Amino acid sequence: MAAEKVCAVSELVQDQAKRVVVGGIPIALVLDSAGDIHAIGDTCTHGDISLAEGFVEDNTLECWAHGSKFELTTGKPLTLPAYEPVPVFVVEVIDGEVFIDPTVTKEI
């Protein structure tokens, strides 16, 4: 599968997550305070909760339901109750547009 355009960079709000679905895979996009864009699996591994509805702080996205924090660069949970990581996807920005291939995850 080729990378798909998911949104314009201008649609992202700093330190907030945006949910997109690419190839049937829900992904949480985050524009962090440093200006980097991250794409991680949108479903908390502790429960079937959308991480995009959570809270962004520094390099983490916190699940609003049970408080598990996931590192944006690795997908690893930093707090319980989650103990399984979420996938982290490669993000490409071309001419102000964000592209993601949901079949390509970062090697962590």
In short:
By secondary structure, the chain is mostly beta strands. It has strands at residues 4-8, 17-22, 25-31, 37-41, 55-57, 60-62, 69-71, 88-94, 97-105.
Ends distance: 21 Å
Unreliable stretches: none
Largest sheet: 6 strands, antiparallel
Number of strands: 9
pLDDT averaged residue by residue: 95
Helix content: under 10%
Oligomer status: single chain
Lateral strand order in the biggest sheet: 1-9-8-4-3-2
Identify the overall geometry.
globular
Output the number of helix runs: 0
**Global structural class:** mainly beta
The SSE string, one letter per element, is EEEEEEEEE
β-strand percent reads 35-45%
Radius of gyration: 13 Å
Describe the structure.
It is a single chain. By secondary structure, the chain is mostly beta strands. Helices cover 0% and strands 44% of the residues. It contains no helices and nine strands. The strands form two sheets. A six-stranded antiparallel β-sheet has the order 1-9-8-4-3-2, with no helix packed on it. A three-stranded antiparallel β-sheet has the order 5-6-7, with no helix packed on it. A hairpin with a 2-residue loop joins strand 5 and strand 6. The chain is globular and about 40 Å long. It starts with a strand and ends with a strand. The model has no long low-confidence stretch (mean pLDDT 95).
Which key terms come to mind for this protein?
globular, 3-stranded antiparallel β-sheet, 0% helix, mainly beta, 108 residues, 6-stranded antiparallel β-sheet
